[in-house]
Amino acid sequence: MRRTVSNREKGSTSNLLTVSAKVLPVWKVLVSWVGMGMVFYMSSQVLRGVPANFFLCFGMVAVLTFQYGTDSVTKLFGRMRKGTKRWMLFYLFAGFAVPLVLTLILKPFLVPHASVESTSQLSPLVFVLEMLVMVIGLIGEEVGVAILAFPIFGWLNQQSELRRYAFFLSALISSVIFGLSHLPVYQWNWFQCIFIAGIPRIFYNYAWKKTDSLWGGVWVHVLNNWIAFGLSYLSQGLPRH
Which of 111, 32, 103, 106 is nearest to 73 (CA)? Predict the structure, then answer.
């Protein structure tokens, strides 16, 4: 008996684009963005370690749920579309290669990543545990960017002259803001935050779109960070305790 192929598997419909195309009331967007800012502040400036990562993750999911509702958030975290693994590899490569090339070119103008420097002093076991806990925080970061990007996409998608570029522009704007949120980490070097930490994460947004799930961006983001932190850790030698 032949199995009927669903529209989602064919790629003709997208839960993610359907949800994010909703035009939210201005008041709800503003309240959610304030809530997102408060969650980010608490997790980066008040809390530390494991509690900070969990607060960031669940706080951001709560804000996204306030924006779109439980059913929509469930769809946004649905299974990734079949046949998109090769695209995830492409976005992983692009998301790693672009900032790496820019870093090599602009090295005299850049400063070290504070988190990378701190993890380089950890024992191997603690480093591995840190990388695992990082996954929770990175889910929160992806959801935080979605909280920014989706309302922007919804509004731009209603503008006939901008509809064609709506996803790219929403990804660009949210990625720049994401980059600027790293200002304390990069010693307030705004150039580095925008062009190294910010704009290259556009590829994570496109991983959402291609896989039709926020999980696509999460795993590309996680693997990117694991590679970057891992290479930095190994390049400085394993600390002796």
Answer: 32
8 Å CB contact between 174 and 205: yes
| pLDDT value of residue 33 | 98
Tell me the CA distances in angstroms from 115 to 2, 65, 87, 111, 125, one per residue in order: 52, 30, 29, 12, 17
Any residues with CB less than 8 A from the CB of 106 and at least 6 apart, and which?
Answer: 191, 192, 195, 196
Task: List, in order, residues 6 or more apart from 226 with CB less than 8 Å away.
Answer: 131, 134
Number of compact structural domains in the chain: 1
How open is the CA angle 71-79-134, to the nearest 5 degrees? 95
What is the value of pTM for the model shown?
0.89
> Domain for residue 3, yes or no?
no
Stated length of the chain: 241
Question: Each residue of 176-222: pLDDT tens digit?
Answer: 999 999 998 888 999 999 999 999 999 999 999 999 999 999 999 99
**Integer CA distances (angstroms), 211 to 16, 31, 83, 142, in order:** 9, 29, 9, 14
Q: What is the DSSP string of 24-73?
A: --HHHHHHHHHHHHHHHHIIIII--HHHHHHHHHHHHHHHHHHHH-HHHH
Q: Which residue's structure tokens are 């930490």?
A: 197
* 75 occurs within a structural domain: no
Do the domain assignments include residue 5? no
The whole domain housing 108 covers 23-70+83-235
